Amino acid sequence: xxxxxxxxxxxxxxLWADVKPAAARRMLLAAVDxxxxxxxxxxxxxxxxxxxxxxxxxxxxxxxxxxxxLYAISLVGSQSSLDAVTAALEEETDPVQRLRGYVSAFxxxxxxxxxxxxxxxYELKALTPEHFDEVDALRRRRAGLLRxxxxxxxxxxxxQIDDQATTALAILSMGIxxxxxxxxxxxxxxxxxxxxxxxxxxxxxxx
Length: 207
Known about the structure:
This protein has helices at 22-38, 45-52, 56-62, 66-89, 95-112, 114-122, 129-155, 164-181, 188-202. The protein is an all-alpha fold. The chain has 2 domains: 13-64, Orthogonal Bundle (Arc Repressor Mutant, subunit A), CATH 1.10.10.60; 67-202, Orthogonal Bundle (Tetracycline Repressor, domain 2). Helix 1 (22-38) crosses helix 2 and helix 5 packs antiparallel against helix 7. InterPro entries: Homeodomain-like_sf, HTH-type_TetR-like_transc_reg, HTH_TetR, KstR2_TetR_C, Tet_transcr_reg_TetR-rel_C_sf.
């Protein structure tokens, strides 16, 4: 039997605060664990209900289908990661420090929320086309912010970049991959700083 889910150190309580009622939130958190552990295709609504400590029928009280659970999870996670990098950019004006802030926030988010991140990054293909488009719009906004920072830094002479699109893809890919291997250490903050250092070197900047 799957273990009953609970709020873990990898998930911030306020990330799910808008999911109501509490039973719906429990079901969503259980689905995160099930999809991350078993994959979307292999996980069943029975698995999810067991992790939530509820009956299989309870799933359908709050969500029409397993697909709707994945959609809700993907929206919450994608919006949260977008909010994290947006907030980081608002704190800086220098191009190098803005890049550092973006990368640090992006990586730290994927480390702190690594279970959720595995689901929203690696189960996208299971979304319906309509749901995928909505979630992908958030992802494209997030990627667009990074590309804008690279252009800004290059125009200011702070970055030496031959191919901005490939550089952005490399930075994003490094951050996303954190969700695949991260467990508990180093801390999300420390890991974010280390990846920010890598990004600064990647764009030929100093500081």
